[in-house]
Structure formats: C-alpha cells, structure tokens
C-alpha cells in the first residue's frame, strides 16, 4: 500500500502510530495482518494499543490503522467520502480573458466563490452550494480529497473550500501520491472500502472502484461558447441553482445512503453495511416515481413500511398520491378497468408489489408485465 506525503502522519506508513504492551498482543497484530479487513472481528479490543509504544511499520500496521480508524468512524455513525476537485467541487481556468479586476471580485454574487489563483494567473469558481455541501456532508462522512492536480494547486483549492481547515485536515491525495498518474484508487484511502463513497465527474480514472462511485455532471463555469458546446455559465452571466443544482441533489443522495447504511430496519440487513451494495440497489429503479394505492392500512405510516423503504433503496421516489407528477408507476394489488385506462392516459404502469420484492432480491429491474395487477369489477 502506498501512502501520500503527509506531514501529520495520518496517511504515512512510516509513522509510529500505535504500539502493543506485550507479545500476546503483538501476536494479535500478526494474526490480523493480511486478512480481508471487512472480515476482522469487531470484538477485537483496541484498548491494548498504546500510542507511546513503537511497532515497526509494515503493511500489517497500515491495515491495523485502517481497521482502527474505520471502526472509530463507524462507531460515530460516519462513513467516508472521497471528493474530486476539478469540475466536481470547482472549476479553474487558465484563460486570461477571465481574470477579473479586484473590483469585479468584490461583487456580492461572487463572495467566497470566485478567486484569483496566485501566482499562476488562474481563476477558480467554486460550485454553487459547495460550502453547505461540505458542512452537511461532514456531519455524516469523514471527508477526503483525491485529485489528479498537483499538491501546490490542490492545497490552494482546499484553502478556498475549507479556509478554517475543519473538513479535510491532511486528507488530501494529489498527483504526486498516485501510483499511476492516470488512475485514482481507494487503496490510497486507509479506510474500509465498504464504507467509502466517491464523488467524481470522471468515472474512467476509478478503474477498480466503480462500485463506490457516484458520477456527477461536470461543472464548467468558464468554458467559452463554441459551435459544438452550449454557452457556459460565465458567458450567460448565470450559474447552477443553489437549491436544485448538482450538489444539493448529491447531498440528498448521500443522506439517503447514510440513512440506509445505519438503518437496522433495512431489508438487506448486514448486506447493507456495504455502500457498494447500497449504490448498486439505488441504480435499479433510478428515475422511477412510484405512487402506492390501497397498499397500506391507515394505521401504518407508509414511510416506515418495508415496501416503501425497499423502493427507496432501489432509487425510486415514492409518494402516496397523484401530486407526484408525472409518476411512472402505480403500485397496487388490483385495479378496475377505469383505473387501467387512466393509467394508460397518464402513461404510467400498474404493477403488483411483488415486482418491488423481486427487483430488490435480484438487484435488477424485472419487466413490469411479469407482475400485473389483478382486475377488479
Ligand atoms: Mg474532475
């Protein structure tokens, strides 16, 4: 395992991070080294580890460090969020035509979002909502940066994003840390992979961690209008929406993943203690908007029902009434001829609740026609 340079030692494989009191516990370390860390017994008692005693650094220690830190996070109901910089959280341009005067930078709409980057004569625009995104995400996730940019550049960007140094600390992986300059890897993040979510605008750089990835639309503030592209935000003197743009949407998804991960009522039980499984399920019914008719008794709060939760875990948006328009599916046991005709007019599909169970269990979308509702007279 290769770790980035880090003055604090957080990511350093050569730091003396912990020690053991006696040979028994040294033996314990040996016993745990090299294992799949997802399989490590949670009962392992780290109270024996003492920071004042020295243990020679090797992969076993790195893995033990990963286990300790990961378990600490899980105990605090926190997951891990690995964020890209360029075109994900911000956009930087070298084009001199965008270099604003100090007066322009003082405009209220650019407050804390548009920066000249000295000494490189560049401009950086932060993505709208990014400060709120980081603040809220940090309550559910330990935040990391992983960028193809160089360390000097990344440090400058982190200053803009995190001026108080509360979100990332030293958890910044840059080009200098990558084993392959064309590839990013969760191997550089010393945490359980089953707890790590990646947010990046480029899926190709995460060759081996696709199942941890949430792909985001690129943020291109400065790009000039050309024959083949739409006008940039800068050219149109506008920007992504603060409340309905990309980062607010991603934040809602992260909240859902966090809730599902730590929700003991999730149908999948232990399988849902892996963000990769949650992400895989969330893709199954992505884009579907469901309304439920005649399914739940009045005494039951639909949001707490197994069926509703399952639909949410499959990525569908759920509702109890027709205000969710346009909706794509009506989940019901049976329908009259009139209700079938109305569904056709609404361009929605009537489907039996068993469809949700089947999709969930197989983690794939089955044809709705195989789960038709009964006809009632
Ligand atoms: Mg990027």
Automatic annotation (TrEMBL):
The keyword Nucleus applies. SUPFAM superfamilies: BRCT domain (SSF52113), HAD-like (SSF56784). GO terms for cellular component: nucleus. GO terms for molecular function: RNA polymerase II CTD heptapeptide repeat phosphatase activity. InterPro entries: BRCT_dom, BRCT_dom_sf, Fcp1, FCP1_dom, FCP1_euk, HAD-like_sf, HAD_sf. It is found in: Nucleus. CDD domains: HAD_FCP1-like. Keywords: Hydrolase, Nucleus. Residues 280-373 form the BRCT domain. It catalyses: O-phospho-L-seryl-[protein] + H2O = L-seryl-[protein] + phosphate; O-phospho-L-threonyl-[protein] + H2O = L-threonyl-[protein] + phosphate. Its EC number is 3.1.3.16. This promotes the activity of RNA polymerase II. This is RNA polymerase II C-terminal domain phosphatase-like. It comes from Castanea mollissima.
């Amino acid at each position: 395992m290769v770790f980035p340079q880090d003055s604090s030692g957080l990511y350093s494989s050569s730091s003396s991070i912990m020690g053991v009191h006696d040979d028994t516990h040294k033996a314990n370390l040996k016993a745990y080294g090299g294992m799949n860390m997802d399989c490590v017994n949670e009962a392992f008692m780290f109270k024996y580890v003492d920071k004042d005693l020295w243990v020679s650094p090797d992969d076993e220690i790195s893995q033990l460090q990963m286990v300790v830190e990961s378990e600490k996070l899980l105990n605090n109901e926190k997951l891990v969020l690995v964020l890209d910089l360029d075109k994900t959280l911000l956009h930087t341009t070298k084009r001199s035509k965008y270099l604003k005067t100090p007066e322009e930078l003082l405009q209220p709409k650019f407050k804390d979002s548009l920066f000249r980057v000295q000494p490189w004569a560049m401009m950086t625009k932060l993505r709208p909502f990014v400060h709120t995104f980081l603040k809220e995400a940090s309550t559910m996730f330990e935040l990391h940066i992983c960028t193809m940019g160089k360390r000097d550049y990344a440090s400058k960007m982190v200053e803009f994003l995190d001026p108080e140094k509360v979100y990332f600390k030293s958890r910044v992986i840059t080009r200098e840390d990558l084993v392959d300059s064309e590839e990013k890897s969760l191997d550089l993040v010393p945490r359980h992979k089953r707890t790590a979510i990646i947010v990046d605008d480029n899926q190709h750089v995460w060759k081996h961690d696709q199942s941890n990835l949430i792909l985001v639309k690129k943020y291109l503030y400065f790009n000039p209008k050309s024959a083949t592209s739409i006008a940039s935000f800068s050219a149109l003197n506008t920007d992504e929406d603060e409340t309905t743009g990309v980062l607010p949407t991603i934040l809602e998804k992260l909240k859902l993943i966090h809730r599902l991960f730590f929700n003991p009522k999730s149908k999948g039980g232990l399988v849902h203690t892996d963000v990769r499984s949650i992400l895989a399920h969330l893709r199954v019914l992505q884009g579907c908007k469901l309304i439920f008719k005649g399914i739940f008794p009045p005494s039951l709060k639909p949001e707490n029902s197994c069926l509703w939760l399952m639909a949410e875990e499959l990525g569908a948006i759920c509702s109890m009434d027709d205000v969710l328009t346009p909706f794509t599916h009506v989940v019901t046991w049976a329908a009259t001829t009139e209700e079938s005709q109305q569904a056709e007019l609404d361009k929605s599909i009537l489907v039996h609740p068993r469809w949700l169970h089947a999709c969930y269990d197989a983690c794939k979308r089955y044809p709705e026609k195989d789960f038709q509702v009964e006809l009632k007279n």
